[in-house]
TrEMBL record:
<feature type="transmembrane region" description="Helical">
    <location>
        <begin position="171"/>
        <end position="194"/>
    </location>
</feature>
<feature type="transmembrane region" description="Helical">
    <location>
        <begin position="268"/>
        <end position="287"/>
    </location>
</feature>
<keyword id="KW-1133">Transmembrane helix</keyword>
<dbReference type="InterPro" id="IPR020846">
    <property type="entry name" value="MFS_dom"/>
</dbReference>
<keyword id="KW-0812">Transmembrane</keyword>
<feature type="transmembrane region" description="Helical">
    <location>
        <begin position="354"/>
        <end position="377"/>
    </location>
</feature>
<feature type="domain" description="Major facilitator superfamily (MFS) profile">
    <location>
        <begin position="17"/>
        <end position="409"/>
    </location>
</feature>
<dbReference type="InterPro" id="IPR036259">
    <property type="entry name" value="MFS_trans_sf"/>
</dbReference>
<feature type="transmembrane region" description="Helical">
    <location>
        <begin position="389"/>
        <end position="410"/>
    </location>
</feature>
<feature type="transmembrane region" description="Helical">
    <location>
        <begin position="18"/>
        <end position="39"/>
    </location>
</feature>
<feature type="transmembrane region" description="Helical">
    <location>
        <begin position="230"/>
        <end position="256"/>
    </location>
</feature>
<feature type="transmembrane region" description="Helical">
    <location>
        <begin position="112"/>
        <end position="129"/>
    </location>
</feature>
<keyword id="KW-0472">Membrane</keyword>
<feature type="transmembrane region" description="Helical">
    <location>
        <begin position="51"/>
        <end position="71"/>
    </location>
</feature>
<protein>
    <submittedName>
        <fullName>MFS family permease</fullName>
    </submittedName>
</protein>
<dbReference type="GO" id="GO:0022857">
    <property type="term" value="F:transmembrane transporter activity"/>
</dbReference>
<dbReference type="InterPro" id="IPR011701">
    <property type="entry name" value="MFS"/>
</dbReference>
Amino acid sequence: MEQALTARTEWKRSWPTVLAAMIGMSFYSVITFSLSTFMGPLEREFGWSRTALSSGLTIFAGISMLGGPFVGALLDRLGTRKIAIAGLALCGCIFAAFGTLTGALWQWITLYVAYGLCALLFKSTVWSAGISSVFTQGRSLALAVMLSGSAIGQTLAPMIAHALIDAFGWRMAYVAMGLGWAGVSLLLVVPLYFDAKARIARGPAGDGVPAAKIVLPGLTIREASRDSRVIRIGVAALLASVVGSGVTVHLVRIVSETGIPMNRAVEIAALAGVAGLVGKLAVGWLLDKVQGSVLPFSGFAIGAFGHFLLIGLFEGIAPKIVGVMCVGFAGGAGLQIATYLASRYAGMRNFGAILGTISSAMMAGTALGPLFAGMVHDATGSYDMLESIAAPVMLLAAFLFVGLGPYPVFRNPEDQVA
């Protein structure tokens, strides 16, 4: 393939792949962010409790956590294109099948198990591996744009679900969102989404070569497991996910329990989402231009400062607004930083398995964080202790990026056949 492509050239060649991946990523977040809209109709229809309804996402998260490394290894062998297409098609059908529920809770659980297994095929690890394989100079911004698909899903899914439920009922809403959103994603992914392995296999030098035979540059699994830089990136991501998820899930209450009215607290908490998108795109753009530990350290340190402002030492609404936005900014930048640095320090040879392992650790942190936050609040009667713990933990995560050193240069076997 071409050597030393500029970021502009990479974008000119591969922007359709980024667009398709972004829309595919948006559908991955629909199952999570549409649930609250479907809860009311399902409660009225079947009398299910909030705990029962929430159990689906617990199953979904558990499968994502346990299956991440295995799917990552599959990506390294087969590439991401066919896997992503299969995942979108299967999950679109399963999402639509939620409209056939008859009131038996086992159906709800079974559908979530099936959805969780198939969603492994188009989670963020899949799209990240594909985008990273076709971008080098412009990789971070490309990842940021792709990952912003989750923000698109987070923003649009509740509104679309609400409109469809009002117009056609919850059953048809499930069908329309499943087949419609996945269908639009497939219309873009099938003709536009090609990762490095797919491109090599299609090109003159790799015509007819199976994806499993194509080798990309980077560390082996054994080398990555012993590389202190990769380990530090993973630990930092885990710590950030624990405190980030714990605070984010309880964010409205953290703000409201300082005496701010609930409706105003909701508005302030919503700023975290906006700041997260800004953090994702800003850090994504800058990481392509600035090497070293400055940006990763700064991104996580901003989160630590935000947690400090939310401890309760400062009166007034302004510190709460700034604190929430700092926490949101760090949350948006966190996955972006971990994904980009993993691709740089581990390379692309086993990037799927390596990022899958890091993502699974982050998913574990996401599952434990809200539980830990609730336990701290129950034990102390406020969230001050939680934020007092979160601030230094986030700062520790920031310091783990210090001294990572220059990006290694891996031998480039893009056209090598094993």
